[in-house]
Amino acid sequence: MIIQHLFLYIGEVAMFSLLFAMGSILVTWLGLSAVFVGIGLIVNRAFRFKLEHAEQIFTSFWMGWATALIVLQIWHLRFRVDRRVFVLVSVLGFAGLWWNRKDIWELFSRSLSRYWSFYAIIVIFCIWLSNQAIGIPKNYDTGMYHLLSVRWASAYPIVPGLGNLYGPLAHNSSYFLYAAMLDIGPWTHKSHHLAIGLIFLPLIGQMLLGCVKLIQKQHEWRLARLLNIALLAAVLYMTNGGQLPSLGTDLPIFALGVVISVNLLSFLESPDKPADYTVFFITVLTVVGVTIKLSFLVFGGMATLVAFGVWIARYRQQRRQNLSSTRRIPNVFIWSAVCALVVMGIWVSRSIILSGYIAYPSTIGPVNVEWRVSREQALAEADWIRALGRALPGFRPGVLEGWDWLRPWAEQMAHNFVEVVAPCSLLTLGVALLILRKVFSSKEHLKPAHPPQSLPWLILIPAFSHLGFWFFSAPAIRFAGSALWVAGAGMFILALNEFHEPFRRRLLYPVFALFLLILVAGLRNASWVHPGSDHGFHPIPQIELKTFVTDAGLKIYTPAYGDRCWDAPLPCAPHPYSDLRLRRPEELSSGFIRQ
């Protein structure tokens, strides 16, 4: 009897801790989402973009989130990322909510009864995501340098020459500033449970809303909504396997690629979509994506060029029809150019401070500062990233020369169903549909759609451009972002769109079944996370540390085993240099140089 009561008590405690951890995450996500939506609504006001549709809540979130990352980069030049900047961002967000309170309430009142099924489904996904977020971070790089980057941002303003202490700390990702902003109060040393889930929750929300609208309004064929549904399987797969409580930059880049692609496709297929705001929206998300991960420049840059090119073509057509004033071109160009120049200027300045290069680990643009990382170290780190993308574990010979790496790389890719096989299958199926339409175009039910739509095909340009760059640089699947899925799903739905409407309507539910099959295959190994020992949260692994003393007497913590510092005290580096010293003795904030 005593043992039975003991087990019941333990079960009740475990259940309470699980509910506490998940509830804490959900409440925090809700509050932070409201803050970012509010900031985005302030930006919307500048474009006279009235809140009328539910999708605008999600675009407002992304605009607000991107704006917050810009603010954080400026703030960190002078101050450490702490509760002060969190309060600043929160005040801006709630001011935006108050300013737009009437529009928000009207939209919520209309959508609650119309899309009740959406709200019911999103609650289920909120519970699932919050459970996945309480787990142990399983992204390897999170233990190597992600958590360290957050600790440095929380403890000090930007530190000159931080790359001399440990090269990856100079990668200059603004995403870690965002995580550091969340690392306050009860979430100190726990921001990794919040950061990625807060991004994926609205991403999944906008996809589910697109699914509900497509089912309820089958007479309104929208490619952007269909793309949302096609990419849902990939997005949900990304939340599995311990990635949600990690701080990897690959998932935010994946999310931004999806958001940009969906909004660009909506812009291409809908001439009545607010053009100025959409172009500016894509520009802002692109430049912020580049500050998170430099390789996003290809995907985001091509998407921005496509958006601007179509905008200019439509503008000229409107001018010929006297439907537009001459003031619109300078406005959208000026706003977008100023945003890009300011944000990239700040990012380059930060990179110079961290490493002495404008885009470390690239050695292009070295600056003559005393803390500049050695050229040999920068080249070695760049080669390491390329080797990581091409090689299998234990496969290193000739990986950077010739094509010996290609066969084992291809064999590895062929075993990745959700991230490689599924999107490539959709791509192949799309090409097959185009051939079918061409060969049997005389058949009544296979006749092309009228009028033909050519602009939506431009959505494939960013994806294929990025895949080309990715293949020849560092073709690890995690570095591909959303490009492979956008290319595969985009080709499939665009090919389907080429057919006459009755034919593609008959294929709608089989298409749903296909995407559901991919989703089930991707989540077949998904599991419920049990409560951890830290009030329901799984704590960061604790490691044994050693002390390394440089020639100048600087003490640095190093892992006793392996190359991951995890949440170790500062300064920590797995492989410190003996010639490392501080610019000013006893001041970590002064920066690091090598003698």
From TrEMBL:
Source domain of life: Bacteria
InterPro entries reported in the protein's UniProt record: DUF8201, LIC_10190-like
Alphabetic keyword roster: Membrane, Transmembrane, Transmembrane helix
Keyword Acetylation attributed: no
Membrane spanning stretches: 15-44, 56-77, 83-100, 112-130, 194-215, 251-268, 280-311, 332-360, 413-435, 455-473, 479-496, 508-526
Ranges where the DUF8201 domain occurs: 22-482
Signal peptide: none
Keyword Cell cycle: no
Protein's name in the database: DUF8201 domain-containing protein
